[in-house]
Every structure is written in structure tokens, then in C-alpha cells.
Amino acid sequence: MAIVIERRDARTQSQGVEPGYGQTAKRWPSQPLQRRPQTASELAGPLRVERRLQPVRGDLAGYGAKRAIGQLIHLRARVVDEDGAPVRGAVVEVWHCNAAGKYIHPNDAHDAPADPNFYGAARLIAGDSGLVELRTIKPGAYPVPDAGGWWRPPHVHFSVWGRVWLSRLVTQMFFPGEPLNDSDAILNAIRDPEARSRCIARLVPADNYLVYEHQLVVRGRKSTPGMP
Ligand SMILES: [Fe+2]
Fold it and tell me: pLDDT tier at 7 (50, 70, 90 boundaries)?
């Protein structure tokens, strides 16, 4: 029996090039996307991505001699397909700024202090249940340069690779209850409110640290919207 994958609803995906945010024009195609089936030649490309991209530390809060500054959080992200089945072996790259809103990237010119005990990126491999876990601190908000007072809400960037290099989801996770979520041009480039809500993590009660759970749906009608 042929496997039928439901086509995405455009309203549940980012509209792509976002006016007022110059980088989206560089990162997104300006023309409508074309469907490109994965044929034998694509699927025969480099396989076993998880072997080629080795895991990199899964504890962003414990990079230095002391714990990083900020609210300690435990992030549980689950990679699933359109049926909710776990995608074992998916390579999940995670990056976010520190509690003051500063990235470790040298291009970040924001006037906020770096934290020597914080490293802002990790690479994790999804286990049998599709789960990746990360100990880190809650990222801060930061202003978008030359954007007229637009601040990005706290968010975590994700890049998820499937079995082959062509199979990749790049997206962002947001935190519940953040007032800046309502005005964020990247999040609100997704027109469907229900699809936007799928980009916001769920806070789970726990002692000692805040636990956030999130689901990354890599394909199908309910797939997680891609975001630059
Ligand atoms: Fe960011």
C-alpha cells in the first residue's frame, strides 16, 4: 500500500520573506517553493547523518567552572513524524543566546555581556523515543538591529536532520506567556494561530529547574513551521 503524506497547508508555515527583517530575504527564496521529490539519486546521498555529525555537549549551562547565569531550564524536545512516531537517530542542533540576549557568534554586536560559563550551541542525537534533552538556561530577549524597536522574544533555534542531508527542518521554539511573542515578526509570519501555538513549548512543573517540553514534527500537515 502506498504511503500518503498529507500536503502542508501554507497558512501553517512561515510566509518566508518578512518585510522589515532583511535577513529573511537572504535566507528564504523569493519565489514560491517547488515540490522536489526525493528520487534514488537524492536518497543515495550521504546517509547516517548521525555518524558524520558527532554529538556536542548537551549541557549549555555547565560549560565553565560555574553554572551559567540565568534561569536553569531542562529542555525536552521530541522529534516525531506526522503520525507522532519517534524519529530515532535524528540529528538535532540547538543554539540560543545567553540570559542577557547575547550570542557567542562574533557577528553579534548587541551591547550585552557574554557569559564565560555559557556555551550557546549543542548537537544531540534523538534516542529511541525521538527525545533529545538539554540542560541550559532560559535565553534572554534581544533587539533586532535597525528594526525600529523590534525585540526578539526568548527563543531557541533548532536544526533537525533526518536520514539524509536533504531532509532538514530549521525552526525556532518559543516560551509560553512571553509578551514579546505577540509582536515577533518571525513567529507571526505564520498566519494560522494553531500552527503558531505548536511553536511554543509547554512548561512542566518540576523541582530545581524549569522543564520545557516541545515537539518537533518533521513532516505532514501538522509539521512544525520552518523559521530562519
Ligand atoms: Fe535568535
Answer: low
Catalytic residues: 103, 142, 152, 155, 157
Q: What pLDDT was estimated at residue 45?
A: 66
User: Can you give the pTM of this predicted structure?
Assistant: 0.89
- 127, three cell numbers: 534516542
Tell me the chain's radius of gyration from C-alpha atoms: 18
Choose among 49, 2, 157: nearest CA to 95. Answer: 157
- The CA 27 to ligand 1 mean position distance, Å, reads 14
Q: What is the DSSP string of 24-89?
A: HHHHS-SSPP------HHHHTSSB-HHHHS--B-SBGGGSSSSPPSS-EEEEEEEEE-TTS-B-TT
Percent of the chain with pLDDT over 70: 93
CA–centroid distance, residue 97 to ligand 1 (Å): 7
